[in-house]
Amino acid sequence: MSGSKIRVPGELFMVSGLFLVAFSISLMVNLGFGISTISSLPYALNLIAPDISFGVWNLMFQTTLYVILVVVTKNVQRIHIVSFIMVILFAALLDLTGKAVSTLPDEPYLSAVLFACGFITMCLGIALMITSKMPLMIIDMFSNNLASHFRISFRRVKTMFDVSCLAVSAAVSMSFLGNLAGIGIGTVLMSILTGTFVQAFGKLLRGRFDARPCLQKRSDVENSDLEGAGAE
Fold it and tell me: For the chain, what percentages of helix, strand and coil (3-state, to nearest 5) are there?
C-alpha cells in the first residue's frame, strides 16, 4: 500500500504548512470577517499592547500552551526544542506576511471568497504540518497530544480548544478594548469547522503521500499517534 504513495521530505510539508498558515492568518486579519480562533487571543493582545508584534504575542501564547501541556501530560522530550524553533519561525512568518498582505479589495463578495480561501488554506497548512512526521508546532502538538493522552479524537479536542480560545479572546477584548477585536462570524464558523477540515485534509494527504523527514529520525515516533487520534 505504502509503495503506491508519493515519497516527499517531511521538512517540505512542514515548511509549506508553516507558510500557508501564517499567510492565511495574515489574510484573515485584513478581511474583517474575523481571525482564526487559535490566533484571536494573540491578536487581541497585540491590539492592547502594540509595541509587541503579533508574531511575538503568538510565540508567548504557544509557550504558555506548552507549559499547560507538560503539566497535564507530564511529558517533556528533547525533541520539543525543534517545536520551539518552528514556533519562532512561524512568529517571524506572521510578521512578514502581515506586512505583505496589507492592501485587499473592499468588495464584500470578493472579500468573502478570499476569506473562504484563507480558511481552506489554513486547514491544509495545519494538515501538512501534522502529516509531515516532523515534530509538531506547539499549538498543534497541544491538541494532538491531549487527544492521545485522554484517548479521544483529535477532531473533538481541536474543536474544544478552538471554542475555548474564542471565549477567552472575547473576554479579554471586551475587558480591555470594549469590542470583540478580530472576532466575527468567520471566527465562530472556524471554531466549529477547523477540526473537521484538518482531519479531512490529513486523511487525504496520508492516503496519497508518504512524508518522511530527512534529518529527524525520531519524529516518526513523535507523531505516530496522530493517525489514531485523528482517524475517529
Answer: 75, 5, 25
Q: Compute the Cα dihedral for 142, 165, 227, 212 and give only its sign.
A: negative
Number of DSSP helices (H) and strands (E) in the chain, helices first: 10, 2
Beta carbons within 8 Å of 85's beta carbon, 6+ residues apart: none
**Do 46 and 54 touch, CB atoms closer than 8 A?**
yes
* Cα–Cα distance for residue pair 63/85, rounded to 1 Å: 11
d(C-alpha 85, C-alpha 96), whole Å: 17
- Which pairing describes strands 209-212 and 6-9: parallel, antiparallel, or unpaired? parallel
- Condensed to tens digits (0 to 9), the pLDDT of residues 207-231 reads 999 988 886 554 444 444 444 343 3
| Helix 37-48 / helix 54-73 crossing angle, nearest 10 deg | 130
Query: 210 - beta bridge partners?
Result: 7
**pTM, whole model, 2 decimals?**
0.78
The H or E element spanning position 211 is: strand 209-212
